[in-house]
Known about the structure:
The protein is mainly alpha-helical. The chain is built from 14 helices and 9 strands. β8 and β9 (363-364) form a beta hairpin.
Amino acid sequence: xxxxxxxxxxxxxxxxxxxxxxxxxxxxxxxxxxxxxxxxxxxxxxxxxxxxxxxxxxxxxxxxxxxxxxxxxxxxxxxxxxxxxxxxxxxxxxxxxxxxxxxxxxxxxxxxxxxxxxxxxxxxxxxxxxxxxxxxxxxxxxxxxxxxxxxxxxxxxxxxxxxxxxxxxxxxxxxxxxxxxxxxxxxxxxxxxxxxxxxxxxxxxxxxxxxxxxxxxxxxxxxxxxxxxxxxxxxxxxxxxxxxxxxxxxxxxxxxxxxxxxxxxxxxxxxxxxxxxxxxxxxxxxxxxxxxxxxxxxxxxxxxxxxxxxxxxxxxxxxxxxxxxxxxxxxxxxxxxxxxxxxxxxxxxxxxxxxxxxxxxxxxxxxxxxxxxxxxxxxxxxxxxxxxxxxxxxxxxxxxxxxx
Length: 404
């Protein structure tokens, strides 16, 4: 197996050479041509986004779409640099992370909202979810918030913690409170909306819990507990989650990477809260995830009942989730390594990039910076860290037995 760390560093170099700018899965409306045709027509906007994301060839240059930096990608690359810094000698990696965090501050929507917040670099197909680029939402804001918390815990710079705290203010003040009752707290996906998306609530609960545990803010922790209670209450008997609530509001059923989002959020939440109900949900969710969303060779299925397309994001999310899970369940490290072997063997190119999807008959060999490169880099850096921890644990056992 090619070293996850070496592969990660090569992939980072590929991204850095392009100033972390690239195309995005949902960036069809960054085309002046398609944007003019679609206007605010929801059907046309959504259709263009759908069709371009599924095109077997990359039509973006033809449609005058320019490569841009995506806030979530910048956050994932920053987190990757911080992870590598912890695994290597020298101090070259942290300054790269710091530079990306500075770029993220410039993209924040804090001047228009209650706290720091971020959105994708393109308009959405549904104008109610963000008719303009960078309209803020839960998922992107939480991913960026996690990057600033990583930076705080690595550098102890209070300014990074203040940014994360500010992001939780956006979550608590600007998102719509859709439910707050005995079932828990459900927050909207974006401001002024009522769509109950499960993975975005899992992410907000995780960020609030992590930030609250550092700052000892009990009100923030209480909101995190209520938010996570709602999420685990939506788990099916089989251990799965739909995309939205109620299930008929979901445009997908039990798919790979959204399930992965929820599981990584449950893991992050458990780092700050000893909650037996959340731990049980995590265990049963992880079992469903492994048994129904991956093939025996490590290939990621698209959905629990559909294999293709084999998507790079599903592979990267699997590596991330099982690497994290190995802290609680050491045997899951082998699962993460198996997925990594498959991903590097099947979706890695010699010039240092990962490509998009393998279909049953067609392969999309172009690279989307956030979707392909940033998630793969971050996942491999987490795997390298998990392997280091496993080796250190084995060495300690060996020393205690006098095997040296």
